[in-house]
Specification:
Layout lengths: L2 H6 L2 E5 L2 E6 L2 E4 L2 E8 L5 E8 L5 E6 L2 E5 L3 E6 L2 E6 L5 E7 L5 E9 L2 E6 L2 E3 L5 E2 L3 E3 L5 E3 L1
Parallel strand pairs: 1-11, 2-15, 3-16
Antiparallel strand pairs: 1-2, 3-4, 4-5, 5-6, 6-7, 8-9, 9-10, 10-11, 11-12, 12-13, 13-14
Length: about 150
């Protein structure tokens, strides 16, 4: 594997308000791979994610920034290094990711796993037990981000 390719697979990720330095490409919650980050040949950010509703129904499946499956109640906004899914009814942002100027990947959203919500916002990461993790920095040492 070339050094250039090797560097491209590690990410600095701001998940909610928390910074995960040198993380792998997967965000895993309660044993489920929810988000996969990649870089295209032009170094562009590519995001794959499956978003589910409270009852486990598939709301959206995004593969490398393209909607594979999208519930008709959602709208996707996508441009270079940016992706956002909005609930048309409530206007709520269900998922948003963008690559910041410094290369950090920022991710916010509402993630249901087994009917339990984990909510990432600019204020913190809201966990199902009521705890909030905010403004922390984690050194991931090239491993994936794992919660729960």
């Amino acid at each position: 594997m070339s050094e250039e390719h090797e560097r491209a697979i590690w990410f600095n990720v701001r998940f909610g308000s928390n910074l995960h330095k040198n993380s792998g490409s997967i965000i895993r919650i309660k044993g489920e791979d929810l988000i996969k980050l990649e870089r295209g040949p032009d170094n562009r950010l590519l995001v794959s994610v499956e978003l589910r509703g409270k009852n486990g129904e598939l709301l959206a499946k995004i593969r490398r920034n393209a909607a594979v499956s999208l519930n008709k109640s959602l709208t996707i906004h996508s441009r270079l290094n940016y992706l956002k899914l909005i609930d048309n009814k409530s206007g709520e942002t269900l998922f948003e990711t963008k690559q910041m100027d410094d290369g950090t990947v920022k991710i916010n959203g509402v993630f249901y796993v087994g009917g339990i919500a984990i909510i990432a916002t600019d204020k913190g990461l809201n966990l199902p037990n009521g705890n909030v993790i905010s403004n922390c920095t984690f050194e991931n040492n090239k491993s994936d981000i794992v919660i729960g």
